[in-house]
Amino acid sequence: MKVLLTGSTGQLGQVLRRSLPQVIKDAPLELIATSRQGGEGMIALDLGDGEACRAAVMEHRPDWVLNAGAYTAVDRAETDSELAHRVNGAAPRAFAEALSRTGGRLLQVSTDFVFSGDQGHPYQPEQARAPLGVYGASKALGEQAVEELLGFGADGHGAILRTSWVYGAVGKNFLLTMLRLHREQASQGESLAVVADQVGCPTSTLGLAAACGALIERDLSGVLHWSDAGAASWYDFAVAIGELAQAEGLLEQPAPVRPLSTKDYPTPARRPAYSLLDCSSSRVQLGLTPQHWRAALQEVISNVGA
What we know:
This protein is of the alpha/beta class and about 300 residues long.
C-alpha cells in the first residue's frame, strides 16, 4: 500500500509519519513523505506548484494521497490570497486530476472554516459550504475539486475529513502559544485575555491521525467529520491549558485568563462564532470513539517537550 503524504513536517504530518498503520489490507505501508523543502527521509514537494503535485502522483502512482499540508495562516490569508488558493484549492485539484488518471484515492484534510458558524448547532457533513474569509474559501475550493473530479460513494475515489481547532505537541498552534503566554504573563503578574464567544472543539493531532489511518484502512469515500468530543470556547481551552500544564509541571503558575468578546479582539479574518462539527455518523464509519477534548489535551501536554 503506497501512501503519498504531504505536509510531513507539520504538526499533523509529524504524527502521521510515526502512527500510520504499518500494514494496510495485508500489504506493508510504503510511505512517501513530502514537504516543501524535502529533508531527511522526505522528498520536496511545493503545494503551491500544481504541476509538481500532478507530477508527483504520475511518478509515484500512490494508492492514496493523504493531503495533510495546507496554508493555515488564517489572518495572513486575507492579504496573501493568491498563495492560499494555490495551496488549499489548486493543489487538491491537481492531485485529483492526476489520481483520476492513475486510479488512486485522495484524502483531503479540511476545516470547520468552510462554514459560516451562523446556525448555532453542529454542522452535518452534507451541509452546504459558506466560508467567511479567504482561508475558508480556499479550503472549500479544495473540497469542491475532490468531489467534482474523484466523486464520492461506492465508486468514488475522494474523501474529505473536516476537523477543527487542531493542536499538538509540535508545530505552531494555540496550545504552544498559550503555554508561552501563560509563562510570560504569570512571570510579570499579568493576565491573559482570550476570546470567549467563539465555540468549537479542540482536536488533538493524535486523534486526528488515528482517524486518517482508519479512513484509509477502510477505503472510505465521501465527507466525514472528526474532532475530539465536547465543546469549548477559546477561553475554556486557554484556562484548561494553564491548569493541566501546571499539574504536569510545565508551568509554575498559570496566568489568570480574562474572557473577551470577538468585537473586543478584531482580527483581519472573520471567524465562525459556532463551528462544532457533528461527528456521530463519521465515528461509526471510522470505528473510533473520541476522547473528550480535555482528556486529549492532557495526553498532548504530557508529550510536550518529550
